[in-house]
Amino acid sequence: MSKIGTTEIERIAKLARIGLSHEETAKMSVEIGNILEFVEQLQSVDVSDTAPTDQVTGLQDVWREDVVQPSMPREQILANVPEQKDGYIVVKRVLNG
Amino acid sequence: MVDLKRPLAELAAGVRSGKLSAVELTQASLDRIEATTEYHTVLELNPHALEQARAIDARVKKGENLPLAGLPFAAKDNYLTAGTHTTASSHILEPFRAPYVSPVVQRLLDAGAVMVAKANLDAFAHGTSTENSDFGPSKNPYDPTRVPGGSSGGSAAAVSLGQVAFAIGSDTGGSIRQPAALCGVVGLKPTYGLSPRTGVVAMASSTDVMGPLTNSVEDASLVLDVMAGPHPSDATTIERDTGSYHVQSGSLKGLKIGLIKEYLGEGLDPGSKQHLLGVIPQLEAAGAVIEEVSVPATKLALAAYYVLVPAEVSSNLARYDGIRFGHSSPTATNLEETFRLSREEGFGAEAKRRIMIGTYVLSSGYYDAYYKRAQKVRTKLIAEFEAAFKKYDLLLGPTSPSPAFPIGSKSQDPIALYLEDVMTVAVNLVGIPAISIPLAKVRDLPVGLQLMAPQRAERQLLAAAHAAEAVIGDWSAR
User: To the nearest whole angstrom, how far is the Cα of B197 from the nearest Cα of chain A?
Assistant: First the structure.
């Protein structure tokens, strides 16, 4: 019995905006179940007095001068856009009409 | 033909003095890559390499003193570069052309190096074998039926094969050190933040670090000296040493070294263990004081890693939305489908798996049990390493559990592949530097020795590794 069923996999896939085939969903249920079982060992440690790590090198308040820097040319950015019109990025309709 | 396995300092000096030229070295690299294409180390050649080599020769002629003059190198294909694609070995980035060059690559080019190729990797650097590359695995130079390790497997194999003078990779959980060990080369993972992450396709931003793969410790130190240093575009970069990282000699005399006990357990191949324990008396004879030390939380490091890293992966890969760059599904009819189908079609199995795990451990109701708890275990791990470094100058262990495994032998079992990193991930979670140097051959395949140092102690680490390398001598005969 996997730790994570296919309904849960479908819920997570929806959160992650990622399409999965039925076959992938079934496989994920087993594989992710196994991985969750593997990381279960973390539950055995007493961390009641331990603070979570935020970062490791101890840097604090990294400042820089607030000066305007040239930005990347617009054409260069738009060169990678899959679909564009008149210098704007084209997206598919948000609502099905 | 020039042997690209010669010391980098010697090759660069040859170019500076006019005895060699950047064009000659670059041509030698291109020829060698051509003659050994069956190892599939390279995803794309830089079409402008020779042109850039000519420009280097012109700069040398003008009297510019270039530390890496004319040295041909391969960049792992997660570095943003000009004139080539940057795919991170993923279909979703196949159409992508980088709009800028990563600062690390730019520093190497400014120092006179010539980028000849983009090296294969596990897609998005997710893996330990390059089998997760959407464009097919690379092959181990010592046995082409086996993996070169990963995720910087193409970089490691390219250096091992003498295709390039050096290569650069990225190390999130062992992705420089493990392939270096499996291919019989040196791999250096610097302190977190010592080299800028900007312009390298992000995997896990709290552990990603850029480093070199080379034929020797001195070579690694020379390349690090160029790569290292803060950059305004990456606020997590740290100050570098004011002196050079280039290490030409080293000593083990008086160094206290802790041998991590937890890495010598049943997961370690008996042949690897025998060689590791065999070299200890020799390191001691060279002046090191070596004792076993226990760092118990290392046993939990992999579990913590496989919560924290997928969490960061799922966040970092959220940017692949089919809208601004990368693959966009031609069949999508609305915005939601653009996201869902572009990601379904563009991501491979391992990227999907990690996005799913990460989304799960960060989702409402599970965050405390998984993500927050893993960050607390990480705190314990950091404290244990700090305690160990109060007693020892350096820590020592194997780099990987075993030598290279056959291609396909573990690909049905994600956890078996994750276990390849069991001896490397702690270093990343703690943010310290570590280096893998070739130790010996086990069943005719290379294995590595790993040295670890406190944060920002690269010079001490490199000097000790230089001395250890001399003690080991001809590793391939061991």
Answer: 15
